[in-house]
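Sample 1 of the test manifest.
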Amino acid sequence: MHAALSELERLFPPGRLLHRPGELVPYESDALTAFRARPLAVVLPESHAEVEAAVRWCAKHQIPYVARGSGTSLSGGSLPIDGGLLIGLNRMNRLLRLDPQERIAVVQPGFINLQVSNAAAPYGLYYAPDPSSQPVSTIGGNLAFNSGGAHCLKYGMTSNHVLAARVVLPDGETVELGSESLENTGPDWLGLLVGSEGLLGIATEITLRLLPKPETYHTVLAAYDSLAKAGEAVAAVVASGLLPGAMEIMDSLAIEAAEAAVKAGYPLEARALLIVELEGETPQVEAEARYLEEVIQKSGAYEVRVARSNEERLKIWKGRKAAFSAVGRLSPDYIVQDGVVPRSRLGQALAEIEKLSARYGLRVANVFHAGDGNLHPLILYNGRIAGELERAEELAGEILKLCVALGGSITGEHGVGMEKKAYMTEMFAEADLAAMRRIRLALDPLELANRGKMFPGEAPALQFHGAHPLEKAGVISRE
Amino acid sequence: MSTPPLQPTSAAEVQEAVRTHRHLLPRGGGSKPALSRPHEGQTVLDMSGLSGVLEYDPSEYVFVARAGTRLAEVEALLAQHGQYLPFDPPLVAQGATLGGTVAAGLSGPMRQRYGGLRDFILGVQFVDGEGQLVRGGGKVVKNAAGFDLPKLMVGSLGRLGILTEVAFKVFPAPKATATLLVNFPGLEAALEALYRLAGSPIELYALDLQPPGTLVLRLGGLPEALPARLERLQAFLGRGGEPLSGEAETAYWRSLNELNLGEGALVKVALTARRIPALEQALGQAPRRYLSAGHLLYLAWNAELKALDALLQAQGLSGLVLKGATHRPQIGIDLGQAMGHKVTKALDPQGKFAQEPYAAQD
Ligand SMILES: Cc1cc2nc3c(=O)[nH]c(=O)nc-3n(C[C@H](O)[C@H](O)[C@H](O)COP(=O)(O)OP(=O)(O)OC[C@H]3O[C@@H](n4cnc5c(N)ncnc54)[C@H](O)[C@@H]3O)c2cc1C
Ligand SMILES: Cc1cc2nc3c(=O)[nH]c(=O)nc-3n(C[C@H](O)[C@H](O)[C@H](O)COP(=O)(O)OP(=O)(O)OC[C@H]3O[C@@H](n4cnc5c(N)ncnc54)[C@H](O)[C@@H]3O)c2cc1C
């Protein structure tokens, strides 16, 4: 046994310190199953003090560590480090406080995203960030990845909904960042922590901002005979001055997949579907709906449906939410990419992706958060055909470079993690990366926290992209 | 002795200034003198020459501009396309600049609807303490690559780097607005209504408390829906209040933007509504206004700042002196902590931007 392990045994009782090979297997990878690594051990803390003790143990013995929530990261963010410690936070899953009057919830990091809204529902409140993984992903993981969902344009990402956090820094020291107030004085240290992918500290207590639930939704589904028309419709909606809660587009391949999976009743022959959802106070939404109708009519949609009931609304969304996992029905394997382009470049990006798809001889399905310019191209391939995976990966890389070349980003919500660190140099200059690295080293001189993630460096080649087990089981779907 | 201000007109000149000067203080438009008053030995870097909007495509809801650009210029440009800065920065007419607004971390009453400055900043370019030009974030409305340096700069007061360029998300401006002033018998009743409103689906652009008992509410949206919404709001409160519209309404908010609350130091305090009753007992005559459902207090303090400092400390609150002579604009509880000190040291290892010119040399 590793000498330091016995010291860890004094800190964690059996059952919460795992180190036998069989016990470690479930923790060897996250939703990016391309990578596997065997940690030295897994600890399952139940309190802030235990997280602190684990991190101090790592600092003392210079052992790298990774924090893990539910392991749904699609970019290898929670992949363990060979011979490192994995700190599993799933047991710290309590709602510590819900204050409906002040509209805040204080949770432990392992608390599940969807449960925040469930807990807030009796008070007419909800938690806005809604990643598709919300039935399983944790608030700690959401914080570390600054997760997004369909409603980012209007409401922003996780970062805009985290008010405060208690954090164990990589040297084991504890700090309190932010406060219950929406405003603060002094630099926004909390803003820096959110989205830092577990490199700057482990959050053990997180204060979230809750919002009142919108009074009404108005959901429109429009069918087009070309992707370009759907893209132009988005531009027209924006130009009209409306600010929808969500604007999503699916192309024909995605429509086909979604229909086969959940029978949402989508017009099957459409080349593109646009979902636009208005939300807010009833009189306002009613007035906005009239403008939206005009805009959509002029945009050349050949069929327009408006959800007349909550059931109809949910049905429209069900197809959209299922589109990704449904693609599995069309192809044995697929890669989900996550990139962002300026909204006005959506049409150009899609045309380029189409060309790339033809050049590589691989089908690409497109589902995206059109309002944000956040693309999620799905690259279909067959892993059994020699060389096809490599071609798929090359194509995925070309799409990321395309996003940057068009003025966008290599990730809108899935993080950099293990998967995209090589592309950070596409987006950032040396001096930019050096500044981030200096911040990291100031807090973690030995680079123990999530070593090997986010920043470019040597990375093993990707081997396999597939559905998360929970996806295959139909529990979650990706956006 | 302080040297005369430098006036860079390019990022390269800012880099040069940082490399060749020992202590620097960036200054924007002169709207928050307490924050940009040089100490001895500090060279002022007047950022007003580094101005101009670089990119703005209304259909993106994004603009990129140099840090010394005046808010007034940005607002005028956005208004031409029916858009606005939803965090509602104050002191526009006084010449506040984008960089200064970010560095001071200031938002105004309309932050209530969509959030504050930190919710709208997308990208930054700045010169760090070693003269390196650093970019963080991006210029698209959604981005999760790398550390969120844009947010880090919010409220940094020029101590972490000198901003040379910023990118912001903007939104369509409400096509029409209306304001309702509602008097309540006292603080308690006003706070009760404030809580009810903040937890309701009624969407307010502003939800201010003018103590002791007046709520100031601003609705925005499509003109045809406003009358019905105003009626619903009045019904919700059980009070008619005093509606303001048209020119009177615009003028009311424009004058509020100047934060001319009264004589003395202008101070911003971060809080939640729960803290208001205790503060109200302690603040006496100081003119003040609570914004954004009690999350933000702007206060005119006409006595010793030391006394306010002590008062805020006793209440566990932090404040920022925006106008008035002080060597220490940050008052109340000390929010500095291990993480902050280390990050500051990483970006400014030689203490060039330190608040007290010689304090950071340790
Ligand atoms: C089917 C599917 C759909 C998805 N859809 C979306 C989507 O719509 N939008 C989106 O943004 N993402 C989506 N994701 C990605 C993923 O769910 C999110 O990134 C999520 O936030 C990860 O949460 P987790 O609890 O699983 O974290 P993990 O995967 O366990 O960890 C993610 C990262 O957070 C760090 N971390 C975990 N807990 C903490 C903590 N307490 N303190 C500090 N660091 C911590 C880890 O070290 C790691 O770097 C999807 C994933 C799947 C599999
Ligand atoms: C020698 C001298 C003495 C003075 N003494 C006084 C005095 O005693 N009392 C008084 O009221 N006025 C005094 N002034 C005037 C006052 O300094 C200016 O009017 C004012 O400082 C300039 O505007 P501002 O930076 O506050 O504006 P803002 O732009 O609002 O700046 C606010 C904050 O942002 C920072 N900042 C601004 N731009 C950037 C940027 N691009 N990057 C990073 N940070 C930035 C500033 O350092 C400051 O912390 C003095 C001026 C001089 C030259």
